[in-house]
Write a structure and sequence with these properties.
Number of helices: 4
CATH class: Alpha Beta
Strand content: 25-35%
Mean pLDDT: 96
CATH superfamily: Cytidine Deaminase, domain 2
GO biological process, one term: nucleobase-containing small molecule metabolic process
Distance between the termini: 34 Å
CATH architecture: 3-Layer(aba) Sandwich
Family: Belongs to the cytidine and deoxycytidylate deaminase family.
Function: This enzyme scavenges exogenous and endogenous cytidine and 2'-deoxycytidine for UMP synthesis.
Order of helices and strands: HEEHEHEEH
Low-confidence stretches: none
Catalytic activity: cytidine + H2O + H(+) = uridine + NH4(+); 2'-deoxycytidine + H2O + H(+) = 2'-deoxyuridine + NH4(+)
Number of domains: 1
GO molecular function: cytidine deaminase activity; identical protein binding; zinc ion binding
CATH topology: Cytidine Deaminase, domain 2
Radius of gyration: 13 Å
Structural class: alpha+beta
Shape: globular
Length: 122
């Protein structure tokens, strides 16, 4: 876990969060590989992108479709993923996938099923 925390802390400065001052980095573990994403804000707030969804996009671009775990770090954390990210993570991880929410002092672990008990499925 300390290796993952070191990676997260090393990359959080790459987040683009000039409006909220709330940088976030996410690391997705999928099929034996890891994928990173950071939040990217925009002056038009609805166009902003969450770190978790950017990490999932990197995973999909690499041809992976099943995530086992996502780690989220913010210097202001530990924080849970937003509702939209919970739904996207559920699509690729299912309710048993782990969400590890990191902050400077430690971390908390929950399943996606706990964070989104009634997720949408087709």
């Amino acid at each position: 876990m300390e290796r993952v925390r070191a990676i997260l802390k090393a990359h959080v400065e790459r987040a683009y969060a000039p409006y909220s001052g709330f940088p976030v980095v996410a690391l997705v573990e999928a099929e034996g590989e890891v994928f990173l994403g950071v939040n990217v804000e925009n002056a038009s707030f609805p166009l902003s992108q969450c770190a978790e969804r950017n990490a999932v996009a990197a995973m999909v671009l690499a041809g992976k479709r099943k995530l086992e775990r996502v780690h989220i770090y913010s210097p202001r954390g530990p924080i849970p993923p937003c509702g939209g990210c919970r739904q996207v993570l559920l699509e690729f991880g299912g309710p048993e996938a782990e969400v590890v929410m990191h902050g400077p002092q430690g971390y908390e672990v929950r399943s996606l099923g706990e964070l989104l008990p009634l997720g949408f499925k087709l």
